[in-house]
Design brief:
The chain has a domain of 56 residues. The chain contains four helices and no strands.
Length: 92
């Protein structure tokens, strides 16, 4: 596995796969485990609500989860983008 969730996975499986990454990013952004968990849980609720509302996704599950995460913390956008960029960087 390369760290990317299966695009055919169920929404809960996709979120479960990304949850540790989201929790880590949220903790670094907020500095509190409790606040980070609250943001991640809120991202899940918004994500699943969006999945249920839309029959056809216009973005990957991972992109949708990260977008929701960013929308909940707009003042921390630069930190989030830096963290995501660092995690995506590596040997080609």
């Amino acid at each position: 596995m390369n760290g990317t969730p299966d695009t055919g996975a169920a929404p809960a499986d996709t979120f479960r796969h990304l949850r540790p990454r989201l929790s880590d990013i949220a903790y670094r952004m907020l500095g509190s485990t409790a606040e980070a968990e609250e943001v991640v849980q809120d991202a899940w609720l918004r994500y699943i609500d969006g999945v249920l509302e839309s029959a056809q996704a216009y973005e990957s599950d991972g992109e949708r989860i990260l977008r929701i995460h960013v929308q909940r913390n707009p003042d921390k956008l630069a930190l989030l983008l830096a963290a995501v960029t660092q995690q995506g960087a590596g040997p080609s």
